[in-house]
Predict the 3D structure of the following.
Amino acid sequence: MNPMKLWTMTDVGLVRKDNQDAFATRQLESGCTICVVCDGMGGAAGGQLASHIASETFISELEKVLKPEMTPEQLREASSYAVALANRAVREAASTNLECRNMGTTLVAAVSYEGGTVISNVGDSRAYHITEGGIVRVTKDHSLVESMVDRGDITAEEARRHPNRNLITRALGPDISAVCDGYICPMAAGDFLLLCTDGLVDTVTDQEMLFEVIHGSDPDTCLGRLLEISKSRGAADNVTAVLMQKQ
């Protein structure tokens, strides 16, 4: 199995003083690639700590249990286990530091297998599968507005501008047992997977992501171009993304 090709980007944006996002990637000798993106919350110190603890713990714990012969379903279970340990690590750190007692973080992660990736998410950071044929959001946000869209109270377009769009209903840290959703995403050679925080989602449309990844001048500058679009629209939040391409 060939490792995925990777590009990464994180930026504080134009409004925030601190970057509370974090990402981590690991390419194993077996050819397996692990990527994770987190968006911290709970004040500058807490959010930054939570996102870094979650991203590093997820990768290190998953790496310990991965075996080359694992099926996608087994990878999904292993990822869920790593998410639970990341949640425990965030909660333990919060319990020992008064300043950080309300901290938490989202998490979206991908681990590759021969035929694609297995994706896990908690909160509203997202994974998109991007191909010549279009862009598909793999994950479902754990957020107030997503549940409103599901009920038919608002449209997906209205959700993008809703004043409560950043209220999430599930996160690592605040939840005793933060249950993650798991997805198996088959990928063909040349396909892309984009993991990103809501700082990108709130300022760049899905179609713009598709255009820059597939039709832009070069994948090597793709994330930089997406960041420029975000900044041209104010970039009120931190902006973080990891782009993976199956070889």
Remarks:
- The chain has a mean pLDDT of 96.
- The CA atoms of residues 29 and 155 lie 45 Å apart.
